[in-house]
Automatic annotation (TrEMBL):
Signal peptide: 1-27
Keywords: Isomerase, Rotamase, Signal
Transmembrane segments: none
Family: Belongs to the FKBP-type PPIase family.
Span of domain PPIase FKBP-type: 88-180, 235-323
A Gene Ontology molecular function term of the record: peptidyl-prolyl cis-trans isomerase activity
Catalytic activity: [protein]-peptidylproline (omega=180) = [protein]-peptidylproline (omega=0)
Matches recorded under InterPro entries: PPIase_dom_sf, PPIase_FKBP_dom
EC category: isomerase
Name of the protein: peptidylprolyl isomerase
Record flagged with keyword NAD: no
E.C. no: 5.2.1.8
Length: 323
């Protein structure tokens, strides 16, 4: 199973409650909800990209390099007949990417039976802004060509791993495959004794109540809704809604609910207990994960999140997609 490629991810993807980093990240779902992204217009450069091929198959892309744009440009190659993509939506995409300066193909993925990449359309999202601007205001089933200048890609540093310089534009041809649900839809399961109780709001956001008991000393998981989707593999990328509380206080220290939409990240990039609680679960499920300190932040805790070195953590996680 693939992680989000370095090609489309921002330089720092850090979720405050989940990553092993104790410092404050530059962009997290705990920030206020993002302002709505505006629709991106076509331009001379995006109109110069020729795309051929059927939906669901990697396209043939032709253009005369170099192509440059002062702002991101988006041309609709094929308009889908599905719903419009709005801010806060999580969508599955396939894409092909080129260096618009050199003409070199950079990467492609998500076509045919291959799982697409899930992207949440929000200014605090985990992908470069040019991708978000290409997806926003598209309709499901659309194919778009996007020309992205450095300001909406890798900025003044470029990306040495991809041989993208600080002045190179990038071309993305994106297929908008479908929307990802915003909450777990699996079959209800009987709660287990000893676990926190979970009450759901109308939109699916959980309220977590801690029992009057000592916290478990080992990792514990409970399935509240059992989905019938794909199984989360070790090292996979997942898209989830989540809320996390400290067992000792019941206080929420991080959540995706109400913060711009679901979060997408690799299980390799989160605290060990969170990853262990997700691996083997299925898409559509809602799980409760109780994480002892040793599988969370260890003896140092996470001061930024208000987590001490002895705190047990509780997460309620809706698993929406995996790739």
């Amino acid at each position: 199973m693939r992680k989000l490629p370095a090609l489309i991810t921002v330089a720092t993807v850090a979720v405050l409650a989940l990553t092993g980093c104790s410092g404050s990240p530059s962009s997290t779902p705990t920030a206020s909800a993002a302002a709505a992204l505006t629709c991106t217009d076509p331009g001379t450069s995006s109109n110069a990209v020729t795309v051929a091929g059927d939906a669901g198959v990697e396209p043939t892309v032709t253009f005369t390099a170099p192509l440059t744009a002062t702002a991101t440009e988006r041309t609709v190659i094929t308009k889908g007949d599905g719903d419009a993509v709005n801010t806060g939506d999580a969508v599955e995409i396939a894409y092909t990417a080129y260096n618009a300066t050199s003409g070199t193909k950079l990467n492609a993925g998500g076509y045919g039976a291959e799982a697409g990449l899930t992207v949440t359309v929000a200014e605090t999202g985990s992908v470069i802004p040019g991708i978000l601007k290409g997806i926003a205001c598209s309709t499901i089933g659309s194919r778009v060509a996007v020309v992205v200048p450095p300001v909406d890609a890798f900025g003044t540093t470029g990306n040495t791993d991809l041989n993208v310089s600080a002045t190179d534009n990038i071309i993305f041809v994106i297929d908008v495959k479908g929307k990802v649900p915003t909450r777990a839809s699996g079959a209800d399961q009987a709660p287990q004794d000893g676990f926190p109780t979970v009450a759901l709001a109308d939109d699916g956001a959980p309220t977590i109540t801690i029992p009057k008991a000592d916290a478990p000393t080992e990792l514990k998981t409970e399935v509240l809704k059992k989905g019938d989707g794909a199984t989360v593999a070790d090292g996979a990328t997942v898209t989830v809604q989540y809320a996390g509380v400290v067992w000792a206080t019941g206080k929420v220290f991080d959540q995706s609910w109400g913060k711009g939409g679901p979060a997408t990240f690799a299980t390799a990039n989160v605290v060990p207990g969170f990853a262990q609680g997700l691996i083997g679960q299925t898409v559509g499920s809602q799980v409760v994960i109780v994480i002892p300190p040793a599988l969370g932040y260890g003896s140092t805790g996470n001061e930024t999140a208000g987590i001490s070195g002895t705190d047990t953590l509780v997460f309620v996680v809706d698993i929406l997609a995996t790739a």
